[in-house]
Amino acid sequence: MSELAVKFQGVGKDYKHFHLRDIDFELEEGRIMGFVGPNGAGKSTTIRILLGLIHQDRGNVSVLGHAMPCDQVQAKWDIGFVSEDMRLYPQATLAWHMKLMTSIYPKWDEDYAARLVKRFELRPQQILKRFSHGERTKAVLLMALARRPRLLVLDEPTTGLDPVARRDVLHEFMDVVTDERRSILFSSHNTLDVEQISDQITFIDKGRIIRSQDKETFLEQWRRVRFAATGGFSAEGLPGIVETVRSGHLGAVITDVYSEEVVERVKQAGADITAVERMTLEEIFVANVIRSRNEVRP
Amino acid sequence: MHTVYTQYTYMHSELVISQTDGRPMYQQVMEQIRQKIAVGDWPPGHELPSIRALAASVKVSVITVKRAYMELEREGLIVTQQGRGSFVADDVSIGPKLQREELQHHLEEAVKRARLLGMDLSELLDMVRRIRAEMLKDGK
Prior knowledge:
The complex is a heterodimer of chains A (298) and B (140). Chain A is an alpha/beta fold and 298 residues long. In chain A, 34% of the residues lie in helices and 30% in strands. Chain B folds into 2 domains: 2-88, Arc Repressor Mutant, subunit A; 94-137. Chain B has helices at residues 2-10, 25-38, 51-58, 62-74, 94-116, 121-137; strands spanning 78-81, 85-88. Classes of the chains: A alpha/beta (298), B mainly alpha (140). Chain A binds chain B through residues 30-32, 111, 115, 118, 167, 170-171, 174-175, 177-180, 192, 196-200, 214-216, 219-220, 263, 272-274, 276-278, and chain B through 1-2, 5, 9, 17, 19, 22-26, 52-53, 55-57, 59-64, 67, 116-118.
C-alpha cells in the first residue's frame, strides 16, 4: 500500500580516512525518519548521497521513485533540503529571498510562506545579516517548507534554536505529514526531538547503520533490569543482554529483546530483580553505539 | 486563511504529552482519550480526529497515535471504519467496564512487580491494606 520515499540498498562510499558501508534503509511515504549518530558517523555523507550531491561508489539509491544520482535533476524539484551551512545573501532582505523562491519554484506557496513568517516571528524587511542565528535557521526552514516539497531533508534542523523556536519548528514538521504523501528525513543530536516526532529511527555510527526500525517497536524492545546478587551471579553469556554494569551487590543489565523470559533468565542465574525500567532514546542510542564499537573492534 | 490555521493549531491541544512521564507516549495518548470518553467530553459515536491531525496537534509521531488508536480499538473503546474514521464506541456501559479493565491492568502490573520482588500474595495484600489505611488516615 505505502510507497517508499527513500530506499538505500547496499550503498557504500570510500574516502581515504572514512568508509560508508552497506547503508540499507527505507523511509515510507508520509512518515518522519530521525537519523541519529555521533559526529563523524556519516550522517551528512549519507544525506548528500541521497540528494545526489555526492555519488556513491556502490549500491542503489532511490528517492521518490527517482534513481540517484542519475535522475537527480527531476528529483530535485520534489526535495527540500536544509542544512546548517546554507548560504543566504546577507545584504538582501527575507522578502527579497522569498520573491526569488517564487520565481524559481512553481509550487511555492505564498500564503503558507506568509503564515510561517508570522509563526516564526521573522521580519521580512530586515536584511539577513541582521538576523540572529536562530532567525536565520528559521528563515532557511521557511524557504524549504513553503516550496511544499514531497520530501524534506533536514540536516540538524533544530540545532541552535531556543526551546520556543524548536517547538514552533517541530509543529511545522508535524503539519507537513498531515499530508500522507509528504515525508521528512532529519538528522539530529537532539534525541528528545527525534523521540517525539519520528515514526522511524535510523542509528548510524562509524559509517554503518546500526539499526533502522519503527520507533514504537524500537522503544518497546529495550529495558534496563536492575538486580541485587551475591558473589556467584554473572550475566555473561545470557542471550539478549547488551550491557552489564555491576558494583558490589547491585547491578543492572540492558537488553534489546525485552520479554519476561529475559527477566526470568536473569533470575535463574541467581539475581533478585529490583526494577525493570524503560529507557529513553538517548540511553538506547548510547548503549547501541557502545555495543557496535565493541563488536567492530578487532 | 490565518484564522483557519489558528483554529486548526489549537483544535485538540487539550491532549498534553509529558516527556518526563515514564510511560511511553502512546500510553499517555491512550489514557487521555480514555479520560475524555469517561468524563463525557467525547460521547458515544463522537468522531475522533484523524491520526495525522491528532499527531500534528499533539506533536507526536503518526506511528505513536496509530498505536494508541489500535490499542483503544482492541479494548473496544473506539471503532474504526475503513475510510470513514474512528468513533467512540456506541456501548454506553463501556465507560465503567473500561475503568474496571484499567484497574485490572494496574493490578496485573502490581502482581507482576510483586512476583519480580519475590513477594507472595499475602504480602502483597498486606501492603494494599497498609496503603489504604494510610490513605484513609490522610483523609484521601
